[in-house]
């Protein structure tokens, strides 16, 4: 790696690390107002429920169809509920929820903060002696850490329900059999692992969106660039992080 490319990579990573350090400090020292966190939590939830519902219900339905197609070759179609529920709780729920939120909430946060930067509102906050990270970033990050796991619980339930609809209406599997297979196969640890992933993903997608927005340059064109970069970077990082989190959680399982 050439020195120029290395410097271009290290500078953004260093700036992002400084911002994250400030956010963590604000959260643990309770410098974040509960009112601001609640406001951001409501915004994240209201902007996400419909798209999360549609994404996960049809994902669960497709998973049930594809799983049944493969399992019926071995006469094991009754295990559809096991596979759909486990995949939804451990992977599909947290990952799909985070990616959808990255495109919906992350883009909105990046655009909002970038607009404040290019219109010099952030400079005005600094001129008044306030910390823009504490005012604009920390409440959003903390709200995401709290809300994304809660939305993931809803996404898991909806995805499993979507699989149940296909199982009962298309695959001739009774509702009782499907539900029993879900309850007996999915453990508390599976649910907890999925929620841990959701919390990490929430932190990543919102912190990246805030970073891109706070470092926007170039007027209105910079707003668009910051929004695009926030969505693309956040989505890729979520997928990469998912692999290493899975390895880590299985290692300590």
Taken as a percent bin, the fraction of beta residues is under 5%
Distance between the termini: 37 Å
Number of domains: 1
Mean pLDDT: 88
Helix proportion range = over 70%
Rg from C-alpha positions? Answer: 21 Å
Count of alpha and pi helical runs: 9
Largest sheet, in brief, is: none
Topology as a string of helices (H) and strands (E): HHHHHHHHH
Low-pLDDT parts are 1-11
According to DSSP, the number of beta strands is 0
What is the overall shape?
elongated
Q: Label the structural class.
A: mainly alpha
Key features of this structure:
single chain; 253 residues; mainly alpha
Short description:
With 253 residues, the protein is mainly alpha-helical.
Fold topology:
Elements: H1 3-28, H2 34-46, H3 49-71, H4 80-118, H5 121-127, H6 132-169, H7 175-185, H8 188-214, H9 219-251
Description:
The protein has 253 residues and is mainly α. The chain has one domain (3-251). Helices cover 86% and strands 0% of the residues. Helix 3 runs parallel beside helix 6, helix 4 crosses helix 7 (175-185) and helix 6 (132-169) packs across helix 7 (175-185). The longest helix has 39 residues, at 80-118. The chain is elongated. The chain starts with a helix and ends with a helix.
